[in-house]
Amino acid sequence: MQNLKYVLLLVISLLSTLAQAQVLTCNNGLMSFFSKTPMENISAVNKKVLGSISTVNNTIAIRALMKDFSFPNGLMEEHFNENYVESEKFPKATFSGKINEIVDFKKEGTYKVTATGTLEIHGISKPRTISGTITVNKDGSIHLVSEFPVVLEDHDVKRPEIVMMKIADKMDCKADLTFIVKK
Q1: Number of neighbouring beta carbons within 10 Å of residue 43
Q2: pTM for the predicted model, two decimal places
Q3: pLDDT at res. 173
Q4: What residue ranges define each of the domains in the chain, with the CATH number in brackets?
Q5: Do 129 and 148 meet the contact criterion of CB atoms below 8 Å apart?
């Protein structure tokens, strides 16, 4: 009988924890990158970035489909997808990790944070710590803004000799996502 009480208490405790667990999601986040060289500037924007944050585990996951990046020039977009990131073979870029700082997700405010995890681009995963700012809004949504570099060589993205001077070896990336309570 004592064991049954212990098991019931454990089950109730687990269910209580699960009921308090909250996952917030983003279905239309923004991610952009910029490459500056003396010969040419290249920029692209993706407005369909997906993400989730667990406020219990302090985990974050973000996914961007490579074909959803829009360029000001159709030829740039074609070269990006076919020659550089090879979107058919490597369709997505992802980051998954853990938020290092303590964030009170129940209290409105702004927090400087870092997340340590894995960034995968072009099929190559690299450990990264990425910094950003989380704002917990009055309505319970979470707004994340981050700027971080991506070195092409780290992810085996090749720059052909003919365009070497037009494409920087490092992309300046920005992320802007708003996470809401998953219904």
Answers
A1: 16
A2: 0.84
A3: 97
A4: 23-181 (2.40.128.110)
A5: no
